[in-house]
Amino acid sequence: MYRRVAIIGGGAAAATLLSELLDRQPAQSLHLDWFTGGDAPGRGVAYGTRSERHLLNVRAASMSMFASKPRGFLDFAQRGDHSIAGTDFLPRRLYGDYLEAEVEHALERAKALGHDVRVIPFKVDGLVPEHDGVTILQGEETTHVDAAVLALGGLPPQPLSGVSDAAIASGRYVVNPWSFLAQAQPDPAPRKVVLVGLGLTAVDVVLELAALWPNASFTAISRHGLLPEAHLASASAPSDDGADLIEAMQAAPDLRSWMRLLRDAIAHSEDWRVVIDSMRPHTPALWQALPREERARFLRHARWAWERARHRMAPQVMAQMQALEQAGRFRRERARLHAADVEGDHLHLSITPTGSSTPQALDTDLVIQTIGLNTDVRRTGHPLVSQLATNGHITPDPLGLGCAATTEGRLCHDGEAWPHLYAMGSLLRGTFWESTAMPEIRQQARQMADRLLGK
Prior knowledge:
Helix content is 35%, strand content 20%. It is α/β, with parallel strands linked by helices and 455 residues long.
């Protein structure tokens, strides 16, 4: 059992691990240092929004922090509103409230049990993993802990190539949409807005700004020009456990075979969502069975389709997006952004429509980059991750999916795993692929707590 543990990160993954550790009521005294980075502990970026328009894309009954308490979030929500059902898609703001409440309860348990828990609202400047623990660098202070867990969430987004420094400096090209939404909005409001990317982040941004700027129109450009799929209005359950499909996929770990098997399974299913959802418990093992070249092929050719089918919108969110589209305020274009620069009082974009080699010009008042989660530690502005990579303490995943790590979450360097440096969540995407949603996070937190407590 580790006696002194550092948890680094202020979001849901860190909060879930902290709560799991303290929920076990370990007999020996624990010393936990939780470096939240200054954010509201537990909410992070994902649940820091206060907008009622931003909904969870998972039903309330499936969003508990704890694998051992499956009704956790639903019970919390129903205490405030008895009409809420487990099949509802609730505001992310409410889920952030739930996370904060659970953190508060965990800290109260720690105090009652005599554990020493420090919530430190600062970032860690550096880490030095060693064979007997980890040294934490913060300003001029150093602290030695028995183990450290990186639960950082997504890395800061980086501007796409071709975007000029002048465009970013002008404030008209927004790299981080969540920071932008949290700020006071420009006055006068822009009339023409372009979004680069068309996933769930783009949907959240459009819904919020369309309400805030009633005279603005929005154009989203992406390679395929398709919105995420929507959940069914009512929950559906798999007619079987998908064992035959999974067995067939494991026997033929290549992308072409998998696509044929999936098409066949969907053709024999009442709804394609049932097939995709039945794969969820098996996705990490399937991903690990894929050779690297097949993983790269998946990222090039099939990732977009998997993401829009796997990470779906709530039905009411889809209805709102369709209404904006029908009203002419939102449109989608199949294209890629090649360049963005300032021209007078607007931005001048160069885009190439999908299937064409001829660039086209597009002028706009504002561009918001909404390309989704960044996990590429090879090119990141995150100071701690940069320090670890520069000093050779971690090995970047070759496909830009976080860090090389074992299935136990131990981070690797030069092909070897550090004995006391761990990660959770998005940094493990190269190991598990599905590693960012709450069902995966709570499972990782439970297993990590067992590991740290020697169970």
